Amino acid sequence: MNQFLKKALSFGLASAMIATALSSCGSDNGGSSTPDSSSQGGSSVASGETFKLGGMGPLTGANASYGISVNQGAQIAVDEINAAGGVNGMQIELFFQDDESDAETAMSAYNKLMDNGIQALLGATTSGPTIALTDLTKEDGILQLTPSGSAMECTQYDNCFRICFTDPLQGVTMANYAAETLGYKNAAIIYDVSNDYSSGMADAFVKEFEAKGGKIVANESFTAGDMDFNTQLTTVKSSGADVLFLPIYYQDVAFIVGQAQKMGMEIPYLGGDGWDGVLGQLEDASVVEGAIFLTPFAANDTAENVQNFVKAYEEKYNATPDQFAADAYDGVYVIKAAIEKAGSTEPQAIIDAMTEISVSGLTGDMTFDATGEPNKAAKVVEIVNGAYEVKLAE
């Protein structure tokens, strides 16, 4: 996940401490108990109450597709859980705010969510807003779980967790895959120097690829908003690179691969999870044929839980879900599992339970460590005949 992914939802502590339901994607939640009474401190709750879940992400602006996906993926999970009786008898109510992928707007949105009495935060969606909220959620003492904020600082406090992989881990994973699985020796990079997600992934890729004996023959950058990449591509073309790593968002990917085609370049592409959605930006998918990028989810994965989610999402929204929707869906079920494990809606109990749960989600089987990071296997997608094919990043 990163402004790439780095995508945000928000949770706060309600004075009445009402509870929400979130259940691990058809798997053992790591042990759950049922609360038997309600208290102002939220130590336990009776059935029939409500858990107020906050969320946020960009619903407008350049990154709106991320926030819309997060909102909709989370709502699918909430609807499922409520239809199945909720969590410990409680129904979930989702409150979602537009943060415009902007840190200041995110803080204002968080305050609005807290005014609505939220008890936990699923968010934010992108890294900048997620980081901006960490001081606030730490001070308020509530769980903050970002579905897609991938910058390291997104989990800087012990109440902060994430569903996606970090930027550095993505860079390391793709460098290993490039060097060991694909056997590339000379790599070129084009990254967004103004974006922490992109630069963090690029830096990690360089270090790991060189550690594996590879050589970085071109390391080119650009700034957000740039649309002309001929200078960078000319350098790459003459560098002797046998692969081009693009740790950037799909909008910029579309510009670069289109211009590379016009220059007559034929080079394999690798990327991070920011590539998700690239096929929808291209008139001719053949320009990215064979490209491989890291992802936690693909809608054509044949796993039963994935196909059930895809069907529900398409029926409700008339659209195909992406990884951001899947991350948010998993995030809701992770919170459900933590509430059940805690046997309480008391904020610290939910936070403490995060390192004791195991959830089988759309994006993989996962546990969480005290640093807030998920433990799960990485997947990559290869674009074959204009479609995504999923495989483990071994």
Written account of the structure:
Residues 1-21 form the signal peptide. This protein has 394 residues and is an alpha/beta fold. The chain folds into 2 domains: 50-165 and 303-376, Response regulator (Rossmann fold, 3-Layer(aba) Sandwich); 168-295, Response regulator (Rossmann fold). It contains 10 helices and 15 strands. The strands form 3 sheets. It has a 7-stranded mixed β-sheet with strand order 7-6-8-9-10-14-15, sandwiched between helices. A 5-stranded parallel β-sheet has the order 2-1-3-4-5, with helices on both faces. Helix 2 packs parallel to helix 3 (127-140). It is globular.
Brief summary:
This protein is of the alpha/beta class and about 400 residues long.
Write the CATH architecture name of the largest domain.
3-Layer(aba) Sandwich
Biggest β-sheet strands, sense, barrel: 7 strands, mixed
Tally of domains: 2
* Helix/strand order, N-terminal first: EHEHEHEEHEHEHEHEEHHHEEEEE
Question: Layout of helices and strands, plus pairs?
Answer:
Blueprint lengths: L49 E8 L6 H20 L7 E8 L4 H13 L4 E3 L4 H14 L3 E3 L13 E3 L4 H15 L4 E7 L3 H16 L3 E8 L7 H8 L5 E4 L3 H13 L6 E3 L20 E4 L8 H14 L5 H20 L4 H7 L5 E3 L2 E5 L5 E2 L3 E6 L2 E6 L2
Helix pairs in contact: 1-9, 2-3, 4-5, 9-10
What are the defining features of this structure?
394 residues; disordered N terminus; globular; 5-stranded parallel beta sheet; BCAA_transport; Rossmann fold; 7-stranded mixed beta sheet; Peripla_BP_I; single chain; 2 domains
